[in-house]
Specification:
CATH architecture of the largest domain: 3-Layer(aba) Sandwich
Helix content: 40-55%
CATH superfamily of the largest domain: NAD(P)-binding Rossmann-like Domain
Radius of gyration: 19 Å
Length: 322
């Protein structure tokens, strides 16, 4: 299978690297100014790999096959779109026009963008994934990524059915160590992770870091209250969220849920989430703002979530000016 990864950020580069190491025919689409450097000097990858029993630290140079423009004559079988959700509006017309007959896998955090995708691509051309096992940040000349064994690359069709392409992509990702898991309800799962990022943003900024957030029971509890508000709003909006970990925590009293969530926030995950925030603050802030805006339209004010709006300038100063 001939694969293109559309998006050379942390997620796109990590997935391209892992599939390339497994021997698959994968190319990476990069901006023109990066083309020569990526092709010749490569991408420096520093990786903390906790997929096995022992934590491993790896440092390597990935020299991918690269292109700087997408054309139908490239005849890709699969295009994995791994860009920030606010970039989809600009990228979708280009993908729709130049992707040929390739299947399109959208790999990332989405909320209302499902409808946007349907406006540009016919049903049957696309499906969805959630890269829940990968976190990280971009560095000068490369990326710093974390690979977690306790989570997956979730894959699913819009209609919830199992398809041949889903099985084929899952097989490729399995051979690449990307831990695929086919699920029937992919959209609610993706929305749920979108919401978790937004719900934790304010409390983390207030705490000063993910490490300090993980030590503060009160702030963890406030993030859970915010998450409950978001999911309540999503139900009134006709959306769904699945009752899986960590979402089942929202069904028990907050004082009982806090220790469970706190236990999952081990030092490695704290470092990975802090790196994710440094790299993706703009995207997560926009997710936070989008949920508040949507809540106002439906009359769901989400007071817990909104109470952290005042900390956004502090977050911008900390994470956007580094």
């Amino acid at each position: 299978m001939k694969i293109l990864v559309f998006g050379a950020g942390v997620i796109g580069t990590t997935y391209a690297w892992q599939m390339w190491e497994a021997g698959h025919d994968v190319s990476l689409l990069v901006r023109r100014q990066r083309l020569v450097r990526y092709s010749h000097s490569g991408v420096t990858i520093t990786c903390t790999d906790v997929r096995g029993k022992e934590k491993e630290y790896k440092k390597t140079v990935f020299r991918p096959k690269t292109i700087d423009r997408l054309e139908p004559k490239d005849n890709f079988d699969l295009i994995i779109v791994a860009i920030k959700n606010f970039q989809l509006g600009d990228a979708l017309p280009h993908i729709a026009k130049f992707s040929g007959n390739a299947h399109i896998l959208f790999l990332g955090h989405l909320w209302n963008e499902f409808a946007l995708i349907e406006k540009h691509l016919p049903k049957g051309r696309f499906f969805f994934g959630l890269p829940a096992m990968v976190l990280g940040a971009q560095t000068l000349g490369g990326i710093n990524c974390y690979l977690f064994g306790g989570n997956y690359t979730y894959l699913g069709e819009p209609d919830g059915k199992t398809s041949q392409r889903l099985q084929e992509i899952a097989a490729i990702m399995k051979s690449s160590g990307l831990q695929p898991k086919e699920v029937p309800s992919i959209e609610p799962r993706i929305r749920g992770h979108f919401a978790w990022q937004a719900a934790m943003l304010g409390p983390v900024i207030k705490a000063g870091s993910f490490r300090l957030f993980a030590e503060n029971n009160k702030l963890i509890g406030q993030s859970l209250y915010s998450m409950r508000e978001i999911l309540s709003f999503s139900r009134t909006s006709g959306l769904k969220a699945v009752s899986i970990f960590p979402f089942w925590l929202l069904k028990i009293p907050v004082f009982m849920a806090v220790p469970f969530l706190k236990k999952t926030l081990n030092p490695t995950l704290q470092a990975a989430l802090e790196a994710r925030l440094k790299y993706g603050f703009e995207e997560i802030k926009m997710q936070f703002q989008e949920l508040i805006k949507l809540g106002k339209k439906t009359g769901d004010e989400m007071l817990h979530l909104k109470s952290f709006e005042k900390y956004m300038p502090e977050g911008e100063k900390k994470y956007l000016q580094q």
